[in-house]
């Protein structure tokens, strides 16, 4: 009973933090776009391209600010994502097999649908198509989606929020798998071996009941450093390191190490790291952007994948498994509410921008501009349409109850 109550509290705290951070993410993205098209644009682009050197003993690396945020700070984001995934699998929503079928199938449909829509546009034979960008629209941004649901439907059944969180977690896990499988072209075996040794060391710390938290943090930094040097995406370092963190409490009735890390790091990730990433990744200049870029195959593929592909994939897969009686709708939820939720899954912002920077070289300015245009347009359209449907559904629900 105590474990179940704690699990519910952790989930609710996560939902509240994500809801609050959505507005800050939006503000950071708007600030980046405004600066990139202002008289101070040179300062913005100069800042994100400024090389910065980090040296710790034998470790030396020089990267521009945008890459340090993407490969450095975002590793902490993926560490927190990994903690949430492990917690939900062991003690949360994903620990109940009866609740797993619908969000897992919906998440898989929500990844397949956008990929197919993107490829349908980018395998047409017209000039400029870039089929390699198909992973860009497959991910859902948890913070934006939950914030939009909180604004549009605060009186809707709470199980809808838990369903959306569970779906987004499965979606994130799939996105991390795609990153590891698709964007690791060459890696250095000795550095990878060092990362694995670091992970093994973190795993051994779990058997030491009173291991100082600083040792876990040091182990994560070591794993991250080796992974960065190995050529493998540091997002995998974050998720893999999270898998080594034990859930067992040090004292009966107290939160475990994993819960402590989640509670301690999540606010910093939600209110600092993700907004900073949105600021350095979302800015693009409209100067020189004409119809070929706005209606380019990458921009169209990403926008259509997020708006059409997500809602078709999530709602279609959900309707299929519910129709086959393999799963049930979230308790108290109506079909129109499930459809509105499926539209919100098209908000791909943070993860889509992250994958876009991996799918296309940063030096390919045209493709990067199209990615940003597609992500912004697709996510904005999904937000407005999903919120409109859910707000209407909530009004109808209230009127029916009166």
Structure description:
With 402 residues, the chain is mostly helical. It has one domain (2-183, 233-401): Na+/H+ antiporter like domain (Na+/H+ antiporter like fold). It is built from 15 helices and two strands. The longest helix is centred in the last third of the chain and has 37 residues, at 365-401. The radius of gyration is 21 Å and the shape is globular. The mean pLDDT is 83.
SSE map:
Blueprint lengths: L1 H35 L4 H9 L1 E6 L2 E6 H26 L6 H26 L19 H11 L5 H25 L6 H17 L7 H18 L3 H10 L13 H26 L8 H4 L2 H27 L11 H10 L4 H11 L5 H37 L1
Overview in brief:
With 402 residues, the chain is mainly α. It has 15 helices and 2 strands. The protein has one domain (2-183, 233-401): Na+/H+ antiporter like domain (Na+/H+ antiporter like fold, Up-down Bundle).
What keywords describe this structure?
single chain; 402 residues; mainly alpha; Na+/H+ antiporter like fold; two-stranded antiparallel sheet; 3% strand; globular
Give the topology string: H per helix, E per strand: HHEEHHHHHHHHHHHHH
Low-confidence stretches: none
Number of domains: 1
Return the average pLDDT rounded to an integer: 83
Approximate shape: globular
Number of helices: 15
CATH superfamily: Na+/H+ antiporter like domain
Residues in helices, as a percent range: over 70%
Main sheet properties: 2 strands, antiparallel
By DSSP, the count of extended strands is 2
- The CATH topology assignment is Na+/H+ antiporter like fold
